[in-house]
Design goal:
heterodimer; A: mainly alpha; 2 domains; two-stranded antiparallel ribbon; 19 helices; about 5% strand; globular; B: mainly alpha
Chain lengths: ~525, ~375
């Protein structure tokens, strides 16, 4: 059973992380294309049309695999997380379905127009199509993050003992869930940063190679300024996300910050530590005073709750949940007892914590105190990987700020200072992979940090999976890895080939390799 | 709105989504599967592929939205169908994966070997999914082995789930798969007749003719076979009841899938529509009215898909191993609140989607020829 759950998690992680190679670039590239094409429509200069088309080509190579791997995500809840789908489909399915209807249709319909309608419509109409693609892809992210935000902070829902599932109570709460909203802005802005680093880095390559300079300069400047705004936004929204996480998921936050014992106000912030899960303490810890309170409360009065206090609180919740679960088992034997049904609904706040015990015993009523202790301990995820992946993300975020601040600074005035600074151009080029590492670290913090839950406080991960066999999982995981690896090789090969070729790939006859030939 | 009415509306809406999927994504799958045969030269193949190039991605969203809508409206159906038919669903997904890179990457490299490879990849990615959709429907008609435990946890009763995939390929299920494949190819053939000229159009017309006739014949054989397979009949099923599939009792009856037609003879119009649509499409396409032929092949597909739905109604996913665990339109839906909310969303967004979809088809209308492809070699697929 546990191997099955672990394999299912691994498959989800592999396919989701892989999908998220393509998503952030799409989110940001669409707006960069809108900016380039807007300049074309306003100034009428052909070079901006060529920029839109060329960067659009790279965007298209990326988008093809994004679409492909997105299919997996839509169906994997059903194939591999059947109990999850049953238990929360009443709420979780809603944003997914609306995403398809409202956003994905829009994006996918007009992306065809973006590529193929250049000669069939007016300039302004084509720009409208590009804008619709950008709106569609970003709205798509909105609904997905509303869904994910609900997994982190499940609001607007009630348990129904008759249907044995969570049901929708308030769509308004689900949509305006502060966790989902903060995550949405943080994630799309991270996408804008990713695309900006991508365009900045490839433009730097042309500048280093002295290839298509006017084209590269303009692309560089657009990416620099857009990237700077995006990085500032990502940092602000990251701070906001931190506040929301502290409110909604103190266990995740304690793990991210390596706080074992509650830090009284004013709490310090750990700069570097070596957390030890067994000893439940840090082997060493460099702390900066006051900063913890400042980050998490924006003042000096707030304390930061530690792992031990959270575990103690959760132990009480498990005991409460156990009682509700015993009532629920009684009700399943006698489903006409309306009084009991109402009692269960009234006491369902900690039902999910009771479900944690199912990992240790099927006889919930006779769970031993050791089992309850064990379950309470499991409510805090592993500290070390979260502590470091969070810091990696923050470090890279800071590096993007520096990169774009300098790029913007060097772009000021008419001198194009950046052209002569080959160290900076090389840095931009080699920095291309890093936004993906930052995105992955962020998602790792979000999803691994939610453990042991799929729906925080409501449904434990170990109960969520489908009743498949390990053989089926090994087969499917192998298949995904093989197909995705092949696709990645082809995609990266094409991307590098077209990036090196640059705007010469458009066949206008105006660019570097065409003039030589 | 009354719960039962909402449940009925959602049965209709899911059917509409399935029809939308097969009519919209179906024609570009048909084109993808036929393109290696209708296009003999590279430019001809590109002409075929480019007739759907701007649209295939939007059309594929019918599949994704269909998945999302089933998740939201029928969570138990979503959970059951995809996890019990795990290997089959993976086969659908993995072959669908091939389409996007085949469309997008094929013409990005000039090498003929590269292009031919992608042509056959596109063929597999376009022919296998409609075949498997049909096989899946066939297996659902036959009943699928699963049950629920007392926590409503779904358990597969398949003897050997991993290799059991081959067991899904029974004669009846294969027949359903072939009906689905042939109608898709016919539909794609008609679409290509509409969008090409000259020698390609002649080949497309021929393909449309062959596959329309095959689809008609196979659909008729399927109708004859249904009388001999087991159907399911439910008792004490309350349309207004809660979403708990364990409350009813179900009997297995040979020919049970014909009961609805016996009880409500008007429903026989639906399979009739399947035949009429395909026959009209066949006639009109031969007469050179391929625009109308396309509409009628769409109507024919709608008739065939609805026939499967109505034969089973109210069943959606019968269980062969534990009939009372079967999922029906009355006891496998989401809550009243969610159904109503999703209905509002569907009523707002579906007309908008249909409007802009027809707009973009209008913009891109017209014949595609090998010569046009050669003029715009760098900007087309």
């Amino acid at each position: 059973m546990d191997t099955l759950v672990d394999l299912s998690r691994l498959q989800f992680a592999v396919t989701a992380m892989y999908h998220f190679i393509f998503v952030p670039l799409t989110l940001g590239m669409t707006w960069l294309l809108v900016i380039m094409e807007t300049i074309y429509v306003m100034t009428g200069k052909e070079i901006y049309k060529d920029m839109t088309k060329f960067w659009g080509k790279l965007f298209g190579i990326n988008f093809a695999i994004g679409v492909t791997t997105g299919l997996t995500m839509e169906f994997q809840f059903g194939t591999n997380w059947a109990y999850y789908s049953h238990y929360v489909g009443d709420i979780f399915g809603v944003p997914l379905a609306i995403e398809g209807l409202m956003a994905f249709f829009l994006e996918s319909t007009f992306i065809g127009m973006f590529f193929f309608a250049w000669d069939r419509v007016s300039k302004k109409q084509h720009l409208l199509f590009t804008i619709l693609v950008a709106i569609g892809s970003n709205l798509s992210a909105l609904w997905i993050l509303v869904a994910n935000g609900w997994m982190q902070n499940p609001v607007g829902t009630v348990f129904n003992p008759v249907t044995m599932r969570m049901e929708l109570d308030s769509f308004y709460s689900v949509l305006f869930n502060p966790v989902g909203q903060a995550k949405f802005f943080h994630t799309v802005c991270a996408g804008y940063v990713t695309a900006s680093v991508f365009v900045l880095g490839i433009s730097s390559y042309y500048l280093l190679k002295k290839q298509d300079l006017p084209f590269a300069r303009r692309s560089f400047k657009i990416a620099a300024i857009f990237g700077l705004f995006a990085t500032i936004a990502v940092i602000i929204m990251g701070d906001e996300s931190g506040l929301q996480v502290y409110k909604a998921q103190p266990s995740k936050l304690a793990a991210i910050e390596g706080v074992w014992e509650t830090e009284p106000a004013p709490a310090p912030w750990s700069l570097l530590a070596l957390p030890d899960q067994e000893k439940r303490s840090n082997d060493f810890n460099i702390k900066i005073p006051y900063v913890g309170s400042l980050i998490l409360h924006h003042d000096l009065q707030g304390s930061v709750k530690g792992v031990e206090e959270i575990v103690a609180e959760n132990k009480q919740k498990i005991v409460n949940g156990q009682k509700t679960l015993i009532m629920l088992e009684e009700f399943r034997k006698n489903p006409h007892n309306q009084v009991l049904a109402q009692q269960i609904q009234a006491d369902s706040a900690d039902l999910g914590y009771g479900l944690l015990l199912k990992k240790y015993t099927s006889d919930i009523a006779n769970a031993t105190p050791e089992m309850i202790d064990e379950a309470a301990k499991s409510t805090v995820p592993h500290v070390l990987p979260l502590y470091y992946s969070f810091r990696l993300m923050v470090f890279l975020g800071a590096s993007f700020f520096l990169l774009f601040a300098l790029a913007t600074w060097f772009s000021m005035g008419k001198k194009n200072l950046f052209e002569s600074k080959s160290w900076f151009l090389k840095w931009s080029l080699f920095w291309i992979p890093t936004p993906w590492i930052a995105c992955w670290s962020g998602w790792f913090v979000a999803e691994y940090g939610r453990q042991p839950w799929t729906i925080f406080g409501i449904l434990p991960t170990h109960l969520s999976a489908s009743s498949l066999t390990s053989g089926e999982l090994i087969f499917s995981l192998t298949g995904f890895v093989v197909i995705y690896t092949l696709l990645a090789i082809i995609e990266i090969w094409l991307m590098v080939k077209y990036s090196k070729l640059g705007p010469s790939s458009l066949g206008t006859g105006k660019y570097h390799f065409e003039r030589q030939a | 709105m009354e719960y039962a009415i909402l449940k009925l509306i959602w049965w209709v809406l899911v059917a509409v989504l399935m029809i939308g999927l097969m009519v919209m994504d179906g024609h570009d799958m048909g084109v993808g599967a036929l393109s290696p045969f209708i296009g003999k030269t590279d430019s001809e193949r590109r002409a075929a592929i480019n007739s759907v190039a701007p649209h295939w991605d939007g059309n594929q969203v019918w599949f994704i939205t269909g998945g999302g809508a089933v998740f939201a409206a029928w969570p138990l159906v979503y959970a059951t169908s995809f996890s019990i038919l795990y290997i089959a669903i993976l086969a659908v997904l993995w072959t669908l994966f091939l389409r996007a890179p085949a469309f997008d990457y094929r013409s990005k490299i000039e090498n003929p070997g590269w292009r031919t490879t992608w042509d056959w990849v596109l063929f597999v990615g376009s022919a296998v999914p409609p075949l498997l959709f049909g096989v899946a429907v066939g297996n659902v008609l036959l009943g699928v082995p699963f049950h629920f435990d007392n926590d409503m946890r779904l358990v597969s009763d398949a003897a050997n789930p991993l290799f059991g995939f081959l067991g899904l390929l029974s004669p009846f299920a294969l027949l359903c798969g072939l009906v689905s494949l042939c109608m898709t190819l016919a539909h794609g053939g008609v679409y290509l007749t509409l969008r090409t000229e000259g020698v390609m159009q002649v080949r497309a017309k021929k393909a449309a003719k062959i596959f329309s006739i095959l689809a008609i014949v196979l659909f008729a054989i399927g109708g004859l076979m249904v009388g001999h397979i087991n159907g399911y009949v439910a008792t004490n099923l309350d349309p207004n009841g809660p979403s708990d599939p364990l409350l009813k009792t179900v009997e297995i009856v040979q020919g049970g899938w014909l009961h609805n037609y016996q009880q409500y003879p008007l429903t026989m119009l639906v399979p009739a529509l399947g035949f009429i649509g395909l026959i009209m499409s066949l006639i009109l396409n031969a007469k050179g009215k391929s625009g109308f032929a396309f509409i009628f092949s769409g109507i024919g597909m709608a008739g065939i898909i609805l026939t499967a739905g109505i034969s089973m109604f109210p069943f959606i996913m019968p269980s062969s191993s534990s009939p009372s665990s079967s999922l029906t339109a009355w006891d496998a839906t989401s809550s009243q609140h969610t159904l109503l909310l999703m209905l509002v969303a569907a009523l707002i967004f579906t007309p908008i989607v249909l409007t802009y979809t027809s707009w973009v088809y209008r913009i891109m209308r017209g014949k595609l020829t090998a010569a046009k492809i050669e003029e715009n070699s760098k900007s087309m697929y």
